[in-house]
Amino acid sequence: MLSIPQPQRQDGSAVTDADLAALLAGEGVPAGLRPVADILAALTAEATAGELAGEARALAEYRCRAGAPEARRQARLGPAVLVPRISSKVAAAAAGVVVLLGGVATAAYADVLPAPIQRLAHDTIGAPYAPGARPARPVHRLAVPGQSAEPGSPPGQGHSGPGQAPHAKGTHARASQGNQGSGQGQQGTGQGQQGTGQGQQGTGPQSQGSGLGQGNPHASGPPGNPHQPGQHGDPHASVGHPRRPAPAGGP
Amino acid sequence: MIGEEFAALLAAAQGGSEAAFTRLWRDANPALVRYLRVIAPGAEEDIAAEAWIQVVRGLSAFRGDEQAWRAWLFTSARRRAIDLARRRARRPEAPLDDLTAGQLPSARDSAEAAIENLGTAAAIAMVSGLPQLQAEVILLRVVAGLDTESVSRLLHKSPGAVRVAAHRGLRRLAEITVDAGVTL
Predict the structure, then answer these.
(1) B133 — contact with chain A (CB < 8 Å)?
(2) Which residues in chain A are closer than 8 Å to B18, comparing Cβ atoms?
(3) % of chain A at pLDDT higher than 70
(4) Inter-chain residue contact B30 with A52, CB threshold 8 Å
(5) CATH number belonging to the domain at B1-95, selected among 1.10.760.10, 1.10.1740.10, 3.90.245.10, 3.40.50.300
(6) What is the pTM of this model?
(7) Contact A59 B29 (CB under 8 A)
(8) CA-to-CA distance for A231 and A194, rounded, in angstroms?
(9) CB-based contact, A61 to chain B, within 8 Å
(10) Burial label, B178 (beta-carbon count in 10 A; 0-12, 13-18, 19+)
(11) What distance in Å separates the CA atoms of residue A193 and residue A216, rounded to the nearest whole number?
(12) pLDDT digits (tens, 9 = 90+) for B35-46
């Protein structure tokens, strides 16, 4: 049988990782591959200035996204390449809110706001409120005993004491029974100004609206709110309690 | 390549150390630029910058050794180079028909440049004259420092195909240098 010689392969055996490593190191390189070894060595020579020119850009990106918290903060404050836009928007919105609130507060203390808003400001921040100076507005809600007839007036807010007695008149006539905002130091003390007076109405000065631990711990208004539900001797006058006629008499 | 210090450097960079990140960048970026100079000439700096942006974004979540780190970096760069090539193919900026044969690069020109000064740029020019796959394999094996397995995954080729491409590329370089009379 004739044996047909096969043509020799041009590329011989494949170069292994070890051969490449040897080429890079310039050790044990076949004579015919010495120039190739030099080429490979030139490919891995020291970096040039042009190849390091993008360092500042990469570092800026790193500071914005992955750097230390202080570096990220400084990167945002400084002329960084990438500045989170939302921070400026949030800051602008917050500044706008602060200015608006400040303006409203100023107007409230100047007693120039519309009556409902002025009353709210009076309830919240103690701004002056003189409803008599304004034209009377019709009240569309029945003055139910023990319930504040003022729509929208939040319970447990720090009204001032007896000096605000005019509040007890008019729509608060029915609610003035019992403790007429006597403000015996126990009302609206900042502790549970809701004045729920749970079952303690008429039993003593602390019964009305002391609300120790029962009310709004955040209420920080002046003591003696004659308009707080429950301070009028009605334990059920607080929000959510069923309405009952206020008992006669008071402390 | 950084070597044994890589794990500590990576952890420090992930923890916010600018010095550690700078060290990682300086170690890998020159190799990255040289690789991109062959597969995306004229856009190597922009593509390298984009690749680093992606790396920075995923830095905190990266887990792996130095091989995986370099493979990740070069994979990101290669994808962007491919995207750029596709965009250029759709909107060619310089039609090749307008170029004469003398203006097209050739292996001979690269070899002649190597005769004058065998530096990094000349070596890159010589590799640029190889077929695309052979040039990429040699650059990824030699310049990027990736092993055969990593290169095969990056190029979506079998390890055997990668070894054959590297062998053929080295043989071709040998022929070019011999023909050009390059000696050191």
Answers:
(1) no
(2) 59, 62-63, 67-68, 71
(3) 30
(4) yes
(5) 1.10.1740.10
(6) 0.52
(7) no
(8) 9
(9) yes
(10) middle
(11) 6
(12) 999 999 999 999
Residues of chain B neighbouring A62 (CB-CB closer than 8 A) = 13, 18, 21, 56, 59
List, for residues B55-107, the tens digit of each pLDDT value.
999 999 999 999 999 999 999 999 999 998 888 887 765 555 544 444 444 44
Q: Quick check: B29 and A55 CB within 8 A?
A: yes
Class of domain B105-184: mainly alpha
- The mean pLDDT value of chain B amounts to 85
Cβ contact A63–B13 (<8 Å): no
pLDDT greater than 80 at residue A127 = no
Residues spanned by the domain of A240: 154-246
**Closest Cβ–Cβ partner in B21, B29, B164 for A62:** B21
Secondary element (H or E) of residue B155: helix B148-155
Q: Do B120 and A59 touch (CB under 8 A)?
A: no
